[in-house]
Write a structure and sequence with these properties.
Layout: H1 12-23, H2 27-45, E1 55-56, E2 67-75, E3 79-88, E4 93-102, H3 105-108, H4 112-129, E5 138-144, E6 148-152, E7 155-158, H5 175-185, E8 191-197, H6 199-210, E9 214-220, E10 224-231, E11 246-250, H7 263-270, H8 281-284, H9 289-302, H10 321-328, H11 336-344, H12 352-384, E12 392-397, H13 399-403, H14 407-419, E13 426-430, H15 434-450
Parallel strand pairs: 2-5, 5-8, 9-12, 12-13
Antiparallel strand pairs: 1-11, 2-3, 3-4, 6-7, 9-10, 10-11
The protein binds alpha-D-glucopyranose (GLC).
Length: about 450
């Protein structure tokens, strides 16, 4: 843990330069992260204690010929979604219907039975609203974006909750079974859970449906995680590890814990409902970046380094990653967008220097997130292909990647810093809605296996 030295109060310059130092990740730090990552991947694949769970997904990527109509569920963020997806068998996927349902806080933190009842009720609404007949069997793909232990494509046991979920009675249970029970209870017995997949697996599957070089899927959203394509013979913990072929592995990289923490990371971690877990996620993803920046701003205000004139206060939960995004997107000469935002929350008459400080703090936090992300990407790609001899398409989904100013560019620039020209082999692409469409592709791949 990095603790700052004694500082003169009232001195934003020295505060910021110390802050920069504690968040800095040099090329050497990145190389260390990559080495540690490889170490943890190896341990995770052989079933040893590791911060990387390396969970086999019991599916490989798509070939593009998969077809059929599927219902898809997406659970893993603040919204729950139901979709109807049509795969035409020529690499094209079409969303026929899509509805979003906000998960009430009481449900997220209530019981598993209530959570799955809520899911079944939402599906019922979806079916009625979109006039979907229930006479024939409906194949359903379920994107369940939490760490789960699978032993085949249609079952999965929740290992632990992440991203603030705490619903009781689900850890250790098969989520497909919980869903099937809830569906039957709500007279939706014709719906059969054909596939269960993590959102990263869905993202890879969806991209590979149209691009056969895709061998990695990533989410940079509320949480962060990645999956990639592994040789079955390398998955030593699998009974079938003597088999030929490939299988997707959900790394659950959000839990990687070999990156030095600042005092802000420690404070943030201790206040979550899963302290000690998801350490890398807590440095990168949308659920946490705003809170890291808020902790820094609060300290600056206390030290009279910022907004010393007024009574500014950022309370827990008030400063979100969306606000950082807005602040960092202000490229106007006088930073007036920032001024407007501050006025909106009751901090008026700010100076240009103060607005600049705010922007700089956000920049320090988001830059570290992007550099860690690049190191993690590099670790997985070089695990698959140590000398970067082949092209790798990486499918990426999530608001942070899509919307956060400069995040994408910083990830790409850091990969270039690590790999020089060879970084051209790493093709970062945006994958829209892997967690919606992707699980339909996964269900279709599974159906092809069964044939
Ligand atoms: C969290 C979950 C993981 C998911 C990621 C992105 O890290 O544990 O399963 O893929 O968020 O949604």
């Amino acid at each position: 843990m990095h603790r700052g030295k004694k500082r003169t109060p009232n001195d934003p310059c020295s505060f910021l330069s110390e802050l920069e130092k504690s968040f800095e990740l040099t090329r050497e730090h990145l190389e260390e992260i990559i080495l540690e990552f490889h170490h943890e991947m190896k341990r995770g694949l052989s079933g040893k204690e590791s911060s990387l769970k390396m969970l086999p997904a019991f599916i490989d990527r798509a070939c593009g010929k998969e077809e059929g109509k599927f219902m898809a569920l997406d659970l893993g963020g603040t919204n729950f979604r139901v979709l109807q997806v049509d795969l035409s068998g020529d690499g094209k996927a079409r969303k026929e219907h899509e509805e979003k349902y906000v998960i009430p806080k009481a449900i997220m933190h209530g019981t598993g039975v209530k959570l799955f009842d809520f899911i079944a009720q939402s599906i019922k609404q979806f079916i009625i609203y979109n006039n979907i007949g229930l006479e024939n069997k409906i194949n359903l793909g379920f994107t369940f974006s939490f760490p789960m232990k699978q032993s085949n494509i249609s079952t999965g046991i929740l290992i632990n909750w992440t991203k603030g979920f705490t619903a009781k009675g689900v850890i250790g249970a098969d989520v497909a079974k919980l869903l099937t029970t809830a569906l039957k209870k709500h007279r939706l017995g014709n719906i059969e859970v054909a596939a269960l997949a993590n959102d990263t697996v869905g993202t890879l599957a969806a991209k590979s449906y149209e691009d056969h070089d895709c061998d990695m899927g990533i989410i940079f959203g509320t949480g962060t995680n990645a999956c990639y394509r592994e040789k079955i013979s390398n998955i030593k913990k699998l009974k079938s590890s003597s088999e030929k072929g490939y299988m997707l592995i959900n790394t659950e990289w959000g839990n990687f814990n070999k990156i030095r923490m600042t005092k802000y990371d420690v404070i943030l971690d201790e206040a979550t409902n899963n302290p000690g877990e998801q350490r890398m996620e807590k440095m990168i993803s949308g659920m946490y970046l705003g809170e890291i920046a808020r902790l820094i701003l609060e300290e600056m205000i206390e030290d009279k380094c910022l907004f010393a004139k007024g009574k500014a206060k950022f309370s827990k939960g008030d400063f979100k990653t969306e606000h950082m995004s807005l602040i960092e997107s202000d490229d106007s000469d006088k930073l007036l967008k920032i001024a407007e935002y501050l006025e909106g929350i009751g901090i008026s008459d700010t100076s240009f220097e103060e607005r600049e400080i705010l922007k700089r703090v956000c920049g320090i936090v988001s830059k570290r997130a992007a550099r860690i992300s690049a190191a993690a990407i590099s670790a997985i790609v070089t695990w698959m292909d140590p000398h970067l001899e082949h092209k790798h398409t990486i499918a990426i989904d999530g608001m942070l990647y899509e919307k956060y100013p400069h995040f994408r560019q910083l990830v790409a620039a850091t990969l270039k810093e690590i790999h020089k020209d060879a970084s051209e082999k790493i093709n970062l692409t945006r994958a829209k809605d892997g967690s919606g469409i992707g699980v339909a592709v996964v269900a279709a791949v599974a159906a092809l296996y069964r044939q």
